[in-house]
Specification:
Length: 205
């Protein structure tokens, strides 16, 4: 049986990570791997309800409450979806995970990073991604990709976006073995080629 793998896709809104995730899925499936595509917040079941609140609730949401909602979604996701799939030997490709909470609620909203790391650890029960891609873009590229239909998180403004972006760069600096930065201003094909190189390098380790 193939060994299970957990790979996460991260970056600020409009970085193109979902496109790349789907390209990797097609590539791996063509190679005969068993792949599961999933996301946070809101994979399926209860998670979809949490996602609805997080992205569409139009009343006031405290920063700490927002963090706990993302974390609650994560705990459910890891226990019910991710861990069972890894156990079955699947390659799990996950659109956003723990680093989003560090980047958005930590660096973006200004909550304590150490505490978020601790809470993330609690939510995942210690499960860590084998590999994480961070798709790095500038705000102009990001906004042109997001367009005018912004959700609650995407409406947080330019300063917020820049803090999130810097946050991701810091995360990668602290954990270079796991977290790889890709220049996501390149074309889709170029970014995917860069990604494949890193992916194959990691697989052969
Ligand atoms: P989504 O529509 O999935 O955006 P994207 O396609 O960019 O992934 O919305 C998820 C939003 O939630 C996105 O703005 C990032 C934010 N988020 C956090 O703030 N903290 C988190 O822990 C997670 C998982 C997401």
């Amino acid at each position: 049986m193939q060994k299970g793998l957990f790979i996460t896709f991260e970056g600020a809104d409009g970085c193109g990570k979902t496109t790349q995730l789907n390209l990797l899925k097609n590539y791996l499936e063509a190679e005969g791997f068993d792949v599961l595509v999933t996301r946070e917040p809101g994979a399926k079941g209860l998670g979809e309800k949490v996602r609805e609140i997080l992205l569409n609730y139009d009343g006031e949401v405290s920063d700490r409450c927002e963090s706990f909602l993302f974390l609650a979604d994560r705990a459910q996701h890891i226990d019910i979806i991710v861990n069972p799939a890894i156990k079955k030997g699947k390659i799990v490709l996950c659109d956003r995970h723990t680093d989003s909470t560090v980047a958005y609620q930590g660096y973006g909203r200004g909550l304590n990073i150490e505490q978020i790391n601790m809470l993330n650890n609690l939510a995942t029960n210690g499960r860590k991604p084998d590999l994480t891609f961070v798709f790095d873009v500038d705000i102009e590229t990001s906004m042109s990709r997001v367009g005018n239909q912004k959700d609650r998180m995407e409406s947080a403004g330019k300063e917020f976006f820049n803090r999130v972006r810097q946050g991701y760069l810091e995360i990668a600096k602290k954990d270079p073995q796991r977290v790889k930065i890709l220049d996501a201003t390149k074309t889709i094909e170029e970014v995917f080629n860069d990604l494949k190189l890193i992916f194959n390098e990691t697989l052969s380790r």
